[in-house]
Task: structure prediction
Amino acid sequence: VRLCRCRCRALLSRPAGAVRERRGLAAGPEMHFGFQTVTEEERREKIYQVFENVAKKYDVMNDSMTLGIHRVWKDILMHKMNPCPGTLLLDVAGGTGDIAFRFINYVRSVRQRQLQRKLKHHQNLSWQEIFESYQKNKFNSLGDSQVVVCDINREMLKVGKQKAQHLGYSEGLSWVLGNAEELPFDDDKFDVYTIAFGIRNVTRIDLALQEAYRVLKPGGRFLCLEFSHVSNPLLSRLYDLYSFQVIPVLGEVIAGDWRSYQYLVESIRQFPPQEELKAMIEDAGFFKVDYENLNFGIVAIHSGFKL
Amino acid sequence: VRSQQHPPVRALQASAVLRRASDEHKKEPLTSSSQQHFDSPPAGHQPEQEPQGPHPSYTGQGGQESEDYESEEQLQHRILTAALEFVPEHGWTAEAIAEGAKTLGLSVAAAGMFHSDGSELVLHFVSECNTKLSKLLEKEQKLVQLGEAEKKPIDDFLRDAVEARLRMLIPYIEKWPQALSVLLLPRNIPSSLNLLTSMIDDIWHYAGDQSTDFNWYTRRAVLTGIYNTTELVMMQDSSPGFEDTWRFLENRVADAMTMSNTASQVQSTGAAVVQGLMGAAVTVSNLREQN
Result:
């Protein structure tokens, strides 16, 4: 781990331009994989392998690494989105389906409230009408909302599908294998595009953002939940300590895979900070781009609109 | 630094929705985004939120064209205006805003640009009503100046102005209590107070008030009181055509007039009393001197 820290310091001491190149914006073949330097193709392959290895223990590891706080982060993301029934959501790098399930729950409860309000207005219904309204409820509990979970990794999708079956989610949910840099969808399709803890693993972030812009409807929203930069120095040191000392060990003990979690922690350090990501999102054509720091910057939610 | 590296990208990816002001009369701009890429002028769109001014590389031909593009604020105004027609059904909520966005051809996710409690919708509506009132009062003033109408006495003028303003609430009267509660949220109090005071100011201005002394404050306080109480009465009024409300308003305005008359009477009486006392004191001192 100390070796990695030295490499970290060495990277940081390089001029800003070179570091920006490493952050996936350069056309050159040299890229970063954690703190290593690899080519674009190698990076894609390595990341695929990382997630192939961790897929089965992904959720368990999330809980133990973040002490369960990742659930709160994802809930906050859902509240920020505040989707109404009839929304089409595309969850990219959605792997095991956390965001998708939360979306379905949220929309279902909003729909319930809507139907209750409608019924309150309709006094003096005949029994036939009441019966019919209950029938309609059964077939429209989601109000035509749909979520498409797209992931590049087959193993993660498999785990997600199993989870959905286990938890009883079937309606309004689809699973698609696809690459965030080249989405297999038409233009102007989706109301909301989310990418939770996934954009860090995309090799060409600018391409992913352009694809996001392409598949969103006019007025659609881009939401990105991702680990980000902690500016508070004391907290930053504690966070580094926890990241580099504790997480890889947890990875070894729980998932039997120290390297993958080493990669994970390093990739967080390599990811652009809040302002830079905001600039990249603006460059892709989004308007009203803003970010909200959670937990002092450990995690940030970036939001933009296709206007 | 960023802008110098990427101006061409911004130029090509012109907005899919924010449209030129000149296009407002043409059909809705629902062209696909790929078409936009090639149709947009080379200068592209300058959104107001970018901290830097127009990039030097554009201003050559783009300087004038870029100003024709609608800003985000204008788009937000359009969405809120469209959302107003859904308020009687959905209330002052994000749902109404989402429906409004749908009618403009935008995704329902555009409602995410606003707060989820509908604050912006209410504030937008109040500000629109105030603007309408100002225009109405200005028109009336012009008629008076041209000699086509008579100048109304002050109590009639105030009554008519307040009634006109309150009538604008009638289509939304069922959900207005909800709007009032939104306006009273701590976050919104500065803006709502601002809107209220500027409206009262406007009415007094067109009523011909040119006071520069303490009267300025008392007049505004009195009219604010009249307006607020009449609004609350209107919430609970179930009489046909709100006649109870207008009668209440008439009484309050009459009270205010009486009060101001009384106040000036008190003042003059006070002055008279003081003079009388002074006179008595002088007389007494003269009598004492004589003795």
Notes: Residues 243-290 of chain B form the longest helix (48 residues).
